[in-house]
Amino acid sequence: MVRILDKAAVEPRRRFSLANTIIIRQSPNRTRLASIRLRIPVLNAQPNRVELVATVGVRGVTGIAQILFRIFRDGVEIFNTVQGIESAASEQNYAVTFQAIDRNVRSGSHVYTVTAENQTRNTRADVVGPISFSGLAVRTTS
What we know:
Layout: E1 2-13, E2 22-23, E3 31-40, E4 48-62, E5 65-73, E6 76-85, E7 93-103, E8 108-118, E9 124-140
Antiparallel strand pairs: 1-9, 2-9, 3-8, 4-7, 4-9, 5-6, 5-8
Protein name: Exosporium protein C
């Protein structure tokens, strides 16, 4: 049995658009995509988990970029994944979706942030939308 403790969602970009793109910065620099705040109550909140889901629309511009997506809780990385993004002679537009689970989060208010960075030199990939990021904090039974 689970009990909902808190939920949050943002959608900074609702649709795909080539007219309003964001270049994904080269590592070690990061492009901040979205943030949410979740509150874990002091009483009756353990054990718990925070379920996080992000979707990011990305377009390959040059080469085959390796995009590192990261999720941070309060500035500390808790999850990452890499997605290859091709540019020419193949697919160019991607909707990258990933999920992370953060377990037994201490009580208080926590900021979760999702970022992207391009790990491959001499390539380019852009965020073209949509962008969505959501979190659901639940109390779980042992």
